[in-house]
């Protein structure tokens, strides 16, 4: 009989057998897979695990706190937080091409993660310990997609540690390799991982960096975060979270249109709501959200975010449109 308790007991035994008394590191992204993988390894080997969270400044409102506070409080993991917000903004300055932005974010992520990992390896070495293992939240569908070979995990480019230098080679610990997403969620809940993390909708590694159409700047990030959190609040309030696959909010930062807000003419930016329904993100349909929910989101965003004077709805399926705009 499948139940999360059995999976946890089984994986805890396997992780202990694989890891022994070596040290382990894990990169946390704030998403469900890396969080549940880390929580499982923590349950198995406790303080032998150190997690690394790279704050690249491209997360949504509340997400860094979910990792730094709620996840730590509920699991007791050792967490190293790297505040790399300035570094990412500097690296992204002046860039508008989507693939270039993705590459820059991926490259900086690896640099920062590498530095943090090297620091952990060196600190452990001073105590005569060896950091031999790296946790990955690889799921069964990733294994199948990549041909199923051992260690052939389909690691998203921004988390790709395959390119780590020679002095940083790790063996992978992949406790979710046999699980589907809904099973990972059940295991996460059983382990006490916060619901906001367990039920988080997919969010791209490059984060808000690919939801600002145009150059990424601090001001634009703040505007997008303010609009995004309103959309998320209202979708949650309407009880729609589990019906929607995800709902990117996109800032058309280089587009302006005329509006009237308060007593004055404005010349602000549009945001796009992109609610989609999907099974696997390979194809998607636009979600027919109730008009009253759309109206509330639109009114709130234009009232509460002064830089935004227009809210538009994306009614394109995938294909031809991708889910993200970049
Ligand atoms: P698209 O836009 O290709 O997105 O229809 C499909 C799914 O993948 C997510 N996505 C990404 N995830 N790194 C990621 O980790 C990326 O660069 C990336 N681009 C898109 C997207 O949010 C959707 O769930």
TrEMBL record:
The record lists the catalysed reaction(s) as: XMP + L-glutamine + ATP + H2O = GMP + L-glutamate + AMP + diphosphate + 2 H(+)
Looking at its record, which EC class is this enzyme? ligase
> What portion of the full-length protein is represented by this chain?
198 to 523 of 523
- Assembly mode: Homodimer.
- List the signal peptide residues: none
Q: Which organism is it from?
A: Cellulomonas triticagri
What EC number(s) is this enzyme filed under?
Answer: 6.3.5.2
What keyword terms does UniProt attach to this protein?
ATP-binding, Glutamine amidotransferase, GMP biosynthesis, Ligase, Nucleotide-binding, Purine biosynthesis
Positions binding ATP in this chain are 29-35
Coiled-coil regions listed in the entry: none
User: Which one of the record's GO molecular function terms can you name?
Assistant: ATP binding
Q: What job does the chain carry out?
A: Catalyzes the synthesis of GMP from XMP.
- GO CC terms on record? cytosol
Q: What is this protein called?
A: GMP synthase [glutamine-hydrolyzing]
Protein's gene = guaA
Question: Hey, which pathway is this one from?
Answer: Purine metabolism; GMP biosynthesis; GMP from XMP (L-Gln route): step 1/1
Q: Which residue intervals define the domain GMPS ATP-PPase in the entry?
A: 2-200
